[in-house]
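Morning!

As promised:
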Amino acid sequence: MIEIHSLDKTFDRNGPTPVHAVNHLSLTFGEGITGLVGENGAGKSTLFRLIAGTIRRDEGEIVIDGVPNDTPEARAALFFLPDTPYAPARYTASQVADFYSMFYPLDKELFKSLTTKVNLPLDRKIATFSKGMKRQLFLLIAFSAQCKNLLLDEAFDGLDPLVMELIREEVLRISIDQKKTIVISSHNIDSVQRIADSLTVLYRGQISEQKKLSDMGEELIKYQLISAHEVRAEDLEHLGYRVALCRTSGSIVSLIVVKQKGLEEDIKQLYAPSLLETVPLEGTELVTAEMMLAREGAHHE
Amino acid sequence: MNKKAFIRWQIKEWLPLFIGFGAVAGLFYWLASYFSAEFYGYGYTSVGVTTPMYVLMALIFAAAAIFPIAIFSYQTNHIRADFYDQIPLKNKELRRIRVLIGIIGLLALFTVIFWIGVLITYLRQVIFNQQEYQYFMSQQNANPADFKPYYFNYVYYIPFFFVLALGLVAHYFTCVYLASLGNRVWDSILYIILGEALLNFALQSILLPSYVAFSSSNYNSKDPFTDWIQLSIGFYFFLKVFIRFYGGEIAWTEGATKPNLYDSSSAAAAFYIGVIGFLLVGAIAAYLMLFKKKDPAGELAGRPGARNGAIALIPHAVMLMLGFLLAAAAQWATMYGGTMVSLFIFVVALWATAYFLLLFASRGTIRFEKKDWIIAAVVAGIVFVLCLSFGIVYANLNR
């Protein structure tokens, strides 16, 4: 379990352009899989690095399994996979695993079986690996590392669909079998949404939303409409509605809006649609809508 | 965390670096030992003592400055910093392991290179002696019993070895400390250069009174004080006095002039202050690096960060070097009468370094504003007046 209290971090604090990357953030990552999403620069990687202790916090406290994150005990209980992990370039995949086994208790049997599953050549130098192959290798090391807490930054970047499916299965398996705390950040929202138990949306270093995935989208509604009028989000916002998404595809307009009394009547009045129906939200849309609302909410503040 | 495995791995990682450097350094030193020859009267030729020692000294200096850069490679690259800052090993412990492996490796390397060099020196002398014997026997009425082969006082190589090793350790830790201040390789190099210059300035400013007493005397004006260009490296000064001493002891024979460093109390004082100062700085640096100092935050790795002034310092460093050259030129040109001029330039250069470094530390960049130029002019004026008064007093004392 990772507990974060009033975490604050500003880069270049005394410089001409300070960046408030994490803004008095408090949250807890419990057992299970949490997806961490947000736009570029939302503070996802900074949050991971602060938890892993690779950058220093200005304020606040981070506790991993009951101990402060900068202690060797906490570090031994955490495996952080950054977007560009380190390994000596001249090493083979097998040597990289040996290298990591000096620092973490690596289940070599598990590692070997996983590499066989994804057909990863262990005797090839990683300098000759593609970006996706490198990602596979480090993910498999992370899964075999037997650490109670995993932080996977940009976890699914560069993976092909077949491997991605296998990785997803593996994340789910270790999360259930080993009762791990796994936090995954990725721009591949579909993948995150398919495996995560809960989702945390970050916006400008603050939590915009933290919910169980099953509870997400309860306050949102999606309409599809056809109208002779131009459908603009501003019209509805002018009436006090919060529009998360307004997209036109051919003659059909999709609108995702925060539920509010009188919404449907107002749409009818504004656009006189020839077709107006509610449709279920897809996973990706749900997360995108939450991110849009986070941005919109921040603008309002 | 398997610490023993990590130590083994780290040694293995640096082995090519040690072997590569050792091979190059060894080659230079051994070739210098083999090819240097000195003529010592009596018709005997001897292997040179001081030339190989100076080569060795330069190599030690280079090694002690190069290896700390490798030690802190993990804090000059953000990918490595990400990794090393998250492993279940305290930063202090990681640094301690790397720093200790570095010095143990260097000492091992130095030991091998040094003693192989001594062996080469000895074997070369045997060859020289055989040649000299043949020449001696070719003379008319030569009596083999009259031939005295020339050999060094080899026993003096033992204390000389330990003194050099001590110098290597002190200099290594000083450089490790200086390198640890940088977040980029070039920053670390710059810190080492500036730190060395500052260390020497500090030592020299302590020794200034002795210098003034020396500068108008004869032989001692060059010993232990050499000209300022040579003295721009504290380590050089430290080892040079030992080389003069031990080199003299090793090669000393009845017919040769034995150098005496201690024929004046000022020279002895300068010697002791210099050596103690140099070792003290090394000891403090070692304590800080092994037990105290905190590494910079990982987010600064590979970035200029607060130390963005490193590049901006280069023109100032060049100016400083020019100041040095001017000081040395003034000293050479006027020889014994140039004390006041060179002292003035020296003190201004000393002040300028301290001022630049302070600016660098406080602002993170060096950009001279109007007030800085005014301060610079005022300080230069004060120093000039002080030097002038000092020169007048000094001239009166010597009248």
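Residues 283-300 of chain A form the longest helix (18 residues).

Hope this helps with the figure draft.
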